[in-house]
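chain below, 188 aa
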Amino acid sequence: MVIDRAFVVVPVLAADVGALEVCLEHLVAAADEAAAGGIPTTLLLASVPGADLDGLLGSWAPLVSLVDGVDVVLVRTGAPDDEQALQRGAAEAAARCTAPSTTLLLTTRAGVTVGPDWISEHARHHGAGARASTGPVRGGADAHALTANLAVRMDAYLAGGLRRSAWTLLHAVTPVVGPLRISLPTQS
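prediction:
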């Protein structure tokens, strides 16, 4: 199976806006690598009320427009929290998808840094038949959210809706793509 499309959903709270610049830098690099390998990628920033992204996106739009196969789209969700923003962003990705069995739906968070091969590694894994995977990310000192680095084929998302409990289960039981690079807090 060949993965030939990717959507990355990033829920953005008002408190996340400051971290989004670095996140976008890495996401655009990963999307550029994926697009160069034949996987056009759309980054969907699913904002909640109070997350003012217009200035940031205004500065990124000219740069991203120069990269073939990469788009950044703002989805104003009206959602009260990041989990609901994630779900609304995923629904937006599903509405834009034309080939669910060859499309990846990936999630990350504004405070997480992905490597340049993040999307491509997930695509290779899914090309070998996986329906879901987790992968390497770098977080801050806190544990990353369970949906910070998950990829599912769009057909799996559409079949189950993937409510919060399903995202958690998929994160727990899916194989890790590449070396795991997250920071977890120590327990006292």
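Strands lie at 5-12, 41-47, 70-76, 103-107, 113-114, 132-134, 137-138, 150-153. The CA atoms of residues 35 and 69 lie 5 Å apart.
thats it, cya
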